[in-house]
Amino acid sequence: MINSEKEASGMAKLALDTATEALSVTVIDDADRVLGHTSLAAGKQHGERLVPVVAQLLEDCNVDCQAVDSLYVGVGPGSYTGVRIGVTLAKTWADSLGLALYQMSSLALLAAQASVPVGDYIIPLMDARRLSAYTALYQQTDQGLVAVTADCHADWQTWLSSEASQHLQAGAQVVMIGQHLAPFAEAFSQALPDVSLKTVEGWTAYPHTDKFQQVAHERVVEPALLEPVYGHLTLAEQEWLAKEGGASVDHAALIHYYS
């Protein structure tokens, strides 16, 4: 889907996410008006399609590449390869031209696609197989979309008992959004029978960037050091911790270790 309006351009901001099979890019102007938005099913072709899609959208919006002064990128969790492609483009672009770079949660982008009343909860979910998922609990508040629990990769049954049950009281209204939700919804209803659950699937239920302004974002101080968020340790991180010890990964040292 491409939706764009040709307008004379000043400075612009560009948001992108490649954490799932959907490739999503949005351009807004310096008055925060959406100039154009593209979301398409890229499958496993993000690497081949991302740059041409970005270039075409900028052209459709009458925005010169040099007019982009801020980048916003979904850093995951999600597909290992997909997330890395988007993050690599954004950090390379920002680092080489000195642009402001902001990171945001791909799960938050997914949650933002669910329209719910203030007070209701949203569970964005990406199927990670074997009834495990990339997920979190969000709530719509007067101040906007708020993360109640941290993004993570988890066994679904464990997450329901250790996270969801701690925050969802009887009578709570929840929307679960994502793909292939049937087994997750069934387990949810069994674990939390007094919580009202609705599900949203289909094309809407991807982390589109058209609502990225509703999502919390964080300025990246050193764009070149930005890494995807996978929700759990990568094999390289596991190996580094096993060798070096400690409770957390020093990514600068990790990069040096594998260089």
List keywords for this structure.
259 residues, 31% helix, 29% strand, ATPase_NBD
Structural description of this entry:
By secondary structure, this protein is α/β, with parallel strands linked by helices. The protein folds into 2 domains: 12-106 and 207-234, 2-Layer Sandwich (Nucleotidyltransferase, domain 5); 111-200, Nucleotidyltransferase, domain 5 (2-Layer Sandwich), CATH 3.30.420.40. It is 31% helix and 29% strand. It has helices at 46-60, 80-97, 106-111, 156-167, 182-191, 235-244, 251-258, and strands at 2-4, 12-17, 22-29, 34-41, 68-74, 100-104, 121-127, 132-135, 138-141, 144-147, 152-155, 173-178, 196-200, 217-219. The strands form 2 sheets. It has a 7-stranded mixed β-sheet. Strands 7, 8, 9, 10, 11, 12 and 13 form a 7-stranded mixed β-sheet that branches. Helix 1 (46-60) packs across helix 2 (80-97). It is globular and about 55 Å long. The relative contact order is 0.16. The model has no long low-confidence stretch (mean pLDDT 90). Residues 42-190 form the Gcp-like domain. It comes from Abiotrophia defectiva ATCC 49176. This is Universal bacterial protein YeaZ.
